[in-house]
Amino acid sequence: MMHYDGMYYINEEEVRSNLTMKDTIDAIREAFEEYRAGRASSNTRVRTFSEGSVLNTMPASMEKYHILGHKTYSASRNGARFVVTLFDSRNNDLIAIVEANRLGQMRTGAVTAYATSILHPHVENFTIIGSGFQAETQLEGMITVSHPQSIRVYSRNYDHAKDFASRMSKQFGVDIRPVDNAEAALSDADTVSSITNSTSPVILRKYLGDEYHVNLAGSNYMNRREAEYEVLHDADLVVTEHYDQSMVESAEISEYVKFGGKPVELREIAGRYGEFSGLRRTVFKSMGIGLEDIATAYRVLRNLGIA
Questions:
Q1: Domains delineated in the chain
Q2: Each residue of 170-221: pLDDT tens digit?
Q3: pTM score, two decimals?
Q4: CB burial class (10 A; 0-12, 13-18, 19+) of residue 21?
Q5: How far is residue 6's CA from residue 263's CA, in Å, rounded to a whole number?
């Protein structure tokens, strides 16, 4: 941890060592409850393109801790670099710059876990679609808020699914079964989390049963799609992190709205545990918003004893 003129610089290893999944879910829960109460804000992502790279900026604020800030990252074919900056809203001091690759991975898993804990708290048969870096925390988040009786993983590359199942089974002490096709993965699953960059739907309505909760977490570009329209159309409730952002980043939500659907924002259901037990089919769309990042970064500072 480096300290410059009152500002801290927190590196990836310090984030990893000072942030658990439970910490992250608690930070997400608190942030969205504050958002619901009107004491936090989060603006849509802004993308700036230059020379094959894109700069993404995601601003937010949280009055409870007097923080203003944003996640910003530059991405290209050569990879990406992520940081969160935090300012003190009372005096405009720059509090910290926090490296945010691990932080982003953790909050992506935490937000779907949080939404699931409200919309579908009793997970029995859980399926993960995708087996990459972000899939790891989709699993960890779900295990943290629930105790699935069975866990399956599907990837377009079956060897990747097998490797994921082997590694994560050892890491978390659970049995994970790799499957080689989407139908087998989704059949009898009551809870599904997808974290892919697919351009065509992987989650088809005919593969799902009469009851399901689906988390769509892999895409924040309009040319990608993880679930077909019928999955949302047949749902009793569709929830998105941020309505305005989903209208420019989510093919699923924008199409759902186009045909008359009325999604609600995650902040509208924040803290309302037990109110949705009568719903048979629910969908949550996650794209990532800046509020999640600044809240999680602040939790890291608290765990380090500097906030």
A1: 2-104+291-304 (3.30.1780.10), 108-289 (3.40.50.720)
A2: 999 999 999 999 999 999 999 999 999 999 999 999 999 999 999 999 988 8
A3: 0.96
A4: buried
A5: 43
For 118, the enclosing helix (H) or strand (E) is: helix 101-119
Of the candidates 137, 51, 53, which has an alpha carbon nearest to the alpha carbon of residue 102?
A: 137
Q: How many CB atoms lie within 10 A of CB 23?
A: 17
pLDDT digits (tens, 9 = 90+) for 47-57: 999 999 999 99
**Tokens representing residue 265 in the block:** 């924002």
Select from 141, 142, 137 the least CA-distant residue to 125: 142
92: left (phi over 0), alpha (psi -120 to 50) or beta: left
**Rounded Cα distance, 296 and 307, in Å:** 12
Long-range contacts for 196-201 (Cβ within 8 Å, ≥24 apart)? 196/129, 196/130, 196/156, 196/226, 197/224, 198/224, 198/225, 198/226, 199/223, 199/224, 199/225, 200/225, 201/225, 201/226, 201/227, 201/228, 201/231
Instruction: Quote the CA–CA distance of 26 and 284 in Å, as a whole number.
Output: 19
16-31 confidence digits (pLDDT tens): 999 999 999 999 999 9
State which amino acid sits at residue 110: A
d(CA 41, CA 58): 11
Phi first, then psi, for residue 230 (nearest 5°) are: -60, -25
State how far the Cα of 110 lies from the Cα of 266, in Å rounded to an integer.
13
